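User: We ran a pulldown and think these components assemble together. Before we commit to crystallization trials, I'd like a predicted model of the whole complex to look at. Sequences follow.
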Amino acid sequence: MGYQSEAALASWKFIFASWLVATVSTMGSLFFSEVMDLVPCVLCWYQRIFMFPLAIILLVGMHPLDLRVIRYALPIAIIGLLFTAYHCLLFYGFIPENLQPCSKGVSCSDASMELFGFLPIPLLSLASFLIIIFLLLKVRSLCRQTS
Amino acid sequence: MKKSHITIIALLLITLTFALVAFFYNQEKNTQANQIVSQHSEALVRDHSVRVGNPQAKVTIVEFLDPACETCRQFHPLVKNLIEQYADKVNLVIRYAPLHHGSDQMVAILEAAKMQDQFWQVLDMMFDTQPQWAINHQAHPDIFWNHLIKTNSALDFEKLQQDMSDPAVFKAIQQDITDGQLLGASKTPTFFVNGKPLPSFGYTQLQNLVKSEVNANY
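Assistant: Here's a predicted model for the assembly, 365 residues in total across the polymer chains.
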C-alpha cells in the first residue's frame, strides 16, 4: 500500500460520509413532504433541487472512486448552502418575508417548519450543506497534498 | 469489507429506516384521525347536508369535496357507481371543502341550486365542464355561470343569485369548512364511511371500506 492508495481510501471515506449526509437529508425531506404531508415552501424546493442530485452524483463518484466528483459536487453544494443561509435568515427574522407579495402557498418562515416543536427544518438543511461542503473540501485538500 | 458492500448496506439501512418510520407514523396518524372523528361524530352530517340514496341506509359515505378539485371530478362517477351498486344499503352525504381560490362561489351556487332541487344536475354539470372554468387551480364562477345559463332551463337564475347571498347559505358553507377542518379533511376528496376515515387514500380503499361496513351492518 503506497501513500497514493492510502490517500485514495481516506478520500473515499470522506466522499462516502458526504454521500451519507446527502442521502439522509434527501430521504428526510421526502419524509416531511410525502409522509408528514408538510408542503415544501419555495425556498425548500430550491434547497431540494441542490440536495437531491448530490445523493446521486456522490454515489456515482464513489464506485469506482473518481475524485473529479468534487469538481461537480462542490458548486451544487455551495449554491444549496446559499439558499439555505438565506432561508435561515428569513426564518429567524433577519430578513422580513413581507418584502414579497403575498401569495397562496406555504410561508417560508412558518412555525410548522419546526420539527418536534424545536428543530427547525432550515437549520437541519444548513447543517447538511455545511457538513457536505466541509467533507468535500477535505477531499480536495487531500488531493492537493498528494499530487 | 468491500466498498460497494458498505454502500449497499448503508442504502438498505436508510431505506428500511424510512419505511419503518413511515409505517409507524402512518399508523399513529390513522389512530389519531379515528379518535378525532369518533369524538366529533356530530360534525360528519349536519341538517343542511345534501344526502343521496336511501335515508334509512345503514352505511353512510360522507364526502368532503371541492367542485374545482380534479380528483373529486374523477371520483364523482365512481362514488355514484358505488351508491348504485349497493342500492338501498349505502347513501352519500356531500360536504363542501372549498379549498381552491374561487371555490366558495361555486359552492354557493350549489347551495342555492339545492333550494330549487337542482343540486345534482348542477354538480354533475360542474364536474362535466370543470376543465373550462377551473384554470390553474383557480375557479372562475363567471365562466361556469354563463355555461349554466345556456344549458339549464329548469333553474330560476334570479332566485339563484338571490339565494347565493342568503345568510343561511353562507352559514352552511362556513359550517362545512369548520367541520372539515375539525375532522382533518385538509385534502379533497376526503371520505368517511360510517365515521371511519380511509386508511390510505384511493378508490380501492374506499370500495373495501364500504364493502366491510355493508357486511358488518347487513
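Chain A has four helices and two strands. That may be worth checking against your pulldown data before setting up trials.

User: Thanks, that helps.
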